[in-house]
Amino acid sequence: MSSKSTLDDNPKKKPYPFWLGGVAATIAASITHPLDLTKVRLQASGDKRMLASIQKTLRTAGVRGLFDGISGTWMRQMSYSMCRFWAYEESKNMLDATAPGAPPWKLGLAGSMAGGIAGLVGNPGEIVMVRLQGDFAKQPEKRFNYKHCFDALFRMVREEGPSSLARGVGPNVFRAVLMNASQLASYDFFKASLLATPYFEDNIYCHFTASFAAGTVATTVCSPADVLKSRIMNASGPGSSSTLLTLRTALATEGPLFVFKGWVPAWVRLQPTTILIFLTLEQLRRGVEWGRGRGVEWI
Prior knowledge:
The chain is mainly α. Helices cover 68% and strands 0% of the residues. It has helices at residues 20-31, 33-44, 50-61, 70-94, 104-121, 123-134, 149-160, 169-195, 204-233, 243-254, 263-293. It is globular. The model is unreliable at 1-11 (pLDDT under 50).
């Protein structure tokens, strides 16, 4: 195999298990959870600066407070992320975009298709994650006080009705389309472009550079939808699920730049997350190949 081969250079071989992407994303998100927690609290609460928000969390809840809502993160990754990686590979197969150097528009379309599907499937987990992460940033009387992700899911259905699981689904799907079209597709594009030069091999340096570029693109493209999603999902009460009302109110009180609130922690979080996801996925796929080579049929 050439040193410049990619993960998908052999479309005829047996596909990898659909859950690999979800496992890789869960591992990465667990490591970067404190940064994701800070991003959500900047977007949905009165916290103003990244470091000040982290210090506030440490002061009020200790180091364990940096991992508030971790079960919601796991639920989200094993629903949304698992679905998006599976759907992205399936979409690339449908569009004949699995070969290295596939046209960027095909990669972007495959990412958009995957994002639309994953955004719908993962919406309940997204709400649970946002609420668990943002709870302790609120005043005590306004907290949901969920025990864990399943308690949050059951209580939402019981107290707010099944329709609560679709809260913010519009901006969430929109954001998921943007994220996958920008992160997954641009990662493939940047990686293929780097490998086409004489300066990069298919190794950690190439993965890091492609991930860095893809993470910056994805953070900027997704910030507006991400901020709206966090605010709508973290709210409750009549009228609080209206995207237009939320947008109008924020524009009137904070100005148009509110859509980039939390960009720095989002960027800081997305860079290591993107790198960790793809490095972990590479290792998991190699593990699958190793197991299949030794007769393990279930993978």
